[in-house]
Amino acid sequence: MAIILVRAASPGLSAADSISHQGTLQCSTLLKTKRPAARRWMPCSLLGLHPWEAGRPSPAVYSSLAVNPAGEAVVSSEQKVYDVVLKQAALLKRQLRTPVLDARPQDMDMPRNGLKEAYDRCGEICEEYAKTFYLGTMLMTEERRRAIWAIYVWCRRTDELVDGPNANYITPTALDRWEKRLEDLFTGRPYDMLDAALSDTISRFPIDIQPFRDMIEGMRSDLRKTRYNNFDELYMYCYYVAGTVGLMSVPVMGIAPESKATTESVYSAALALGIANQLTNILRDVGEDARRGRIYLPQDELAQAGLSDEDIFKGVVTNRWRNFMKRQIKRARMFFEEAERGVTELSQASRWPVWASLLLYRQILDEIEANDYNNFTKRAYVGKGKKLLALPVAYGKSLLLPCSLRNGQT
Ligand SMILES: CC(C)=CCC/C(C)=C/CC/C(C)=C/CC/C(C)=C/[C@@H]1[C@@H](COP(=O)(O)OP(=O)(O)O)[C@]1(C)CC/C=C(\C)CC/C=C(\C)CCC=C(C)C
Ligand SMILES: [Mn+2]
């Protein structure tokens, strides 16, 4: 039975969100989930390439090496990220996590309601900061809901370090300290009750530390990088800050026992959902990000469209801008399509919330179109009515047989 020590106050959200009292939490032992050996699965989208832009190949077929203008072999971001996906899938299949860092014996108990209070606080933060995700989690089982809340809060605090009120004071050293805290909570030594909820979550689900480390790397990137030369660079950033969320979430969402999908393919779909969400987020926030001096859109694609940073700072919707945005939206939708094939492979109890989250976030793209691509001064959002309408649609989709069964693929 692992016990964890709760220590000092913590950065991130408001001071009220961190507690300074000492305390420990009782953690249950790691739950083991059994599933049949993964069988061969070719996702529908992998049966035929759907090229976009410069003909993006699907992971299973792209060459692992590309060549840069200087003729040097370079490994694409997609290949680097796919290697992470393969590792995460292998860990989940073996139900192992990377060796736990030097776990130390803990010597205190925290009242059981301390853990409940910790998770409840996570739920309040999730509800306050992300109503769409919170709505999705309300469709989950209690244990999964709490686990996603704990993951959400850690992700939000991590994002707030570079996007929040104290962002101007954050330094790479502070991010290093945040990573050290992450290692501590992964070894059952959280600093506050919000970390303690995640500590408890990783003791219940086979979640690996790597995606969390990579999200912190994404925040380091935000500290030093305000332009992206091409989609390869942007893809890596989207992996860091959002694809990682997908990888964190799969062990909690669970894969349906009847699924014939390979674990790798489900992780690829989770990654795709994160990438799709982040691309959508970037397209939604063009004006807002530009006012903070950040342009995430690939510089080479802007130039090919006859556009420049100045056009973005000017914020005038021209036909060049409309055509550029149409291609960007098309690419984001292709990542949503890739994600859709994986949602059907999740455990039944997780499909509805993930479908709901996917449909709602994707609708932001529709709203950008409805705004005539004015994402400079208009923030696209999905109204309450459309949000509620998406729920029964998501529920209907959650009843579909897993794609791997429908295609009779083995
Ligand atoms: C029900 C459900 C999908 C829950 C996931 C909730 C969760 C853990 C979200 C974490 C989000 C977060 C705060 C990440 C930190 C970095 C960041 C801000 C990422 C951007 C999110 C949107 O934030 P927001 O809209 O608040 O943007 P602003 O900060 O206001 O600009 C991102 C766009 C990334 C979000 C990524 C996901 C939600 C990926 C979820 C993927 C899965 C759950 C995998 C599902 C499995 C399969 C097989 C498809
Ligand atoms: Mn944003």
Shape: globular
Ligand inventory:
ligand LST6JFWI, manganese (II) ion
Spell out the helices and strands N to C: EEHEEHHHHHHHEHHHEHHHHHH
Q: Could you say which structural class the secondary elements and strand pairing correspond to?
A: mainly alpha
**What fraction strand?**
under 5%
Q: Please compute the radius of gyration using only Cα atoms.
A: 21 Å
> What's the CATH class label?
Mainly Alpha
CATH architecture: Orthogonal Bundle
Q: Supply the number of helical segments.
A: 17
Low-confidence stretches are 1-5, 7-12, 18-64, 97-109
Mind summarizing the main beta sheet?
Answer: 2 strands, antiparallel
- The main sheet orders its strands as 1-2
**Distance N terminus to C terminus?**
40 Å
What report would you give on this structure?
The protein has 410 residues and is mainly alpha-helical. The protein has a single domain (75-95, 109-400), classed as Farnesyl Diphosphate Synthase, CATH 1.10.600. It contains 17 helices and 6 strands. The strands form 3 sheets. It has a two-stranded antiparallel ribbon with strand order 1-2. It has a two-stranded antiparallel ribbon with strand order 3-4. Helix 8 (210-224) packs antiparallel against helix 9 (231-253) and helix 10 (263-284) packs parallel to helix 15 (348-370). The longest helix has 25 residues, at 319-343. The protein is globular and about 60 Å long. Bound molecules: ligand LST6JFWI and manganese (II) ion (MN). Manganese (II) ion binds next to loops.
